[in-house]
Amino acid sequence: MSRTTDVVQKDRNLGKNQLRVGRLVKAHGLKGALKLELYTDNPERRFVTGAEFTLQVPEASPWHGKTVTVREYRVMNGNPVVFLDDVEDRSAAEGLVRAILWIDQDTTEVEENAWFDQQLVGLDVVRDDVVVGKVARIEHFPAQDLLIVKAGDQEIMVPFVEAIVPTVDVAAGKVIVTPPAGLFEELPDAAGSEEDAAADAAE
């Protein structure tokens, strides 16, 4: 099963660790409900009535800098749906579409497949048993997170999904990547090998 990993960000203003748990993908019905894309393995525990989430929205959004509180969570026709306080109709719900939900996270309680940014930064990036770089930082985007890998003088963006990053071993100080062809091929060593191969083929 493909997954987008949970990545915990550090709230720069509050000094709190936060866990990304979902994204509001579309308005549902006329009473303010929103369909959820889940980034958590335990939505029933995360989306309890009264749970408060920090919103990640564009700065131009009227919701920027605000929080939302869960009024009700339910599964409707196989889809996770959430009702939020003060979101009473479809128009209000549509104003929250694409917002990402973050929750304050107890640093002693991290879900499986969830890591803090600071746990990932500095880890060796290993492909085919060869270290190809180090994690420089993590970029958070609505669809998925990206590992920014420092490889020599270059930075390579690696989608942080299970198909490409199947193993994160913080204790061993490494992440294992199985990138598609071409993702790390711009590196000087790889480029040199390609040129040698082309020269051999020409001969």
Could you characterize the architecture of this molecule?
The chain is mostly beta strands and 203 residues long. It is elongated and about 55 Å long. 28% of the residues are buried. The protein has helices at residues 43-46, 90-94, 117-120, 188-202; strands at 6-10, 17-28, 33-38, 52-56, 67-76, 79-84, 100-104, 114-116, 124-127, 130-140, 145-151, 154-159, 167-169, 174-176. The strands form two sheets. The protein has a six-stranded antiparallel beta barrel. A six-stranded mixed beta sheet has the order 12-11-10-9-14-13. The model is unreliable at 1-15 and 188-203 (pLDDT under 50). It is 14% helix and 42% strand. It has two domains: 17-104, RimM (Elongation Factor Tu (Ef-tu), domain 3); 122-187, SH3 type barrels (Roll). It contains four helices and 14 strands.
Could you name the key traits of this structure?
single chain, 203 residues, mainly beta, Elongation Factor Tu (Ef-tu), domain 3, SH3 type barrels, 2 domains, 6-stranded antiparallel beta barrel, 6-stranded mixed β-sheet, 4 helices, 14% helix, disordered N terminus, disordered C terminus
